[in-house]
Amino acid sequence: MRWLVFLSLLLPTPAVAQTGAQGECVVLLHGLARTEASFTIMEQVLLRRGFRVVRPGYPSTDLPIPLLVQQTLPQAAEECGDDRLHLVGHSMGGILIRYWLRGEKPANLGRVVMLGTPNQGSELVDRLGDWEVFGLLNGPAGMALGTGPNSIPRRLPAVDYPVGVIAGSHSLNPVFSTMIEGPDDGKVSVESTRVDGMTDHIVLPVTHTYMMNNPRVIGQAVHFLETGAFDPDMTWMDSVFGSIAEVCRGQNCPGDPASEPSQ
User: Fold this and answer.
1) Rg for the chain, CA atoms, rounded
2) pLDDT tens-digit map of 164-194
3) What is the pLDDT of residues 41-64, one digit of tens each?
4) Are residues 256 and 245 in contact, defined by beta-carbon separation less than 8 angstroms?
5) What percent of the chain has pLDDT over 90?
6) Each residue's pLDDT tens digit, 204-213
7) Helix, coil or strand: residue 166
8) Nearest-5° angle of CA 245, CA 44, CA 231?
């Protein structure tokens, strides 16, 4: 986490944020059993890129997915007003976004980024769903995320709007990974993150739970929101220092060589 401290020292305050994304709003939707606080870091980066940000919380383990969608996304979109509406969803948050956009879409819809979303369902739900404690911890929404034909992910239509999917390939849970076929992030397989109709897909060496805080994930997510594509050549250093350089341009940020006076 030391890079976060370093980044916070270099980034300017919101008062001097760049204005390239004015008129654009991003809704950040957390995943199952998480809270809106999980997107705090990405929110700060987006604010400094000039986006407005809406970061709603919702009771992810208490209600089924249709009710969670109804209670959360229309209100969040309303907070964005007439600004161009982008959405970023982590894990189950991406499924809520797909559920909401399966019918009529907002006229101001922009781009969508999904982080580790089980678009083809979760093998862990298949294997552990019969355990009572699993149901208690994950609630009705979590139990609806299996890979069977009647699961919500499998019943959703292909996407017909710009979607970029970021998958993780690093697992910190070898027990869960034995239940998942192919590369995975400890909870969701890389293959399961794919969705028909998606615009772009990228695999990064990150783990599921905290991927939204990884600088490479943040860098790629912002790049897709701004350009409609990922940058496969973007490195960890590019993600951190490239963003700093663009944000600091002309702002005289401390530590930014481009802002130092010529000798």
Assistant:
1) 19
2) 999 999 998 888 888 899 999 999 999 999 9
3) 999 999 999 999 999 999 988 899
4) yes
5) 66
6) 999 999 999 9
7) strand
8) 55
Residues 44, 35: Cα–Cα separation, whole Å: 16
What is the strand order of the sheet 84-90 is part of? 52-54, 24-29, 84-90, 109-115, 163-168, 200-204
Fold of 22-232: Rossmann fold (3.40.50)
Partners of 26 in beta bridges? 53, 86
* Residue 191: C-alpha distances to residues 104, 108, 116, 188 (Å): 28, 30, 10, 8
Distance of CA 136 to the CA centre of its chain: 25
In the chain the beta strands, taken as DSSP E runs, fall at: 24-29, 52-54, 84-90, 109-115, 163-168, 200-204
User: Per-domain residue ranges for the chain?
Assistant: 22-232
Hey, how many other C-beta atoms are within 10 angstroms of the C-beta on 133?
Answer: 8
Q: What is the DSSP letter of 158?
A: P
Pairwise CA distance, residues 254 & 247, whole Å = 12
CB of 12 closer than 8 Å to CB of 117: no
Give 53's strand partners: 26
Name 104's Cβ contacts closer than 8 Å, sequence gap at least 6: none
Which DSSP string corresponds to 64-125? -HHHHHHHHHHHHHHHTTTSEEEEEEETHHHHHHHHHTTSS--TTEEEEEEES--TT--HHH
Burial of 16 (0-12, 13-18, 19+ CB in 10 A): middle
Rounded Cα distance, 125 and 122, in Å: 5
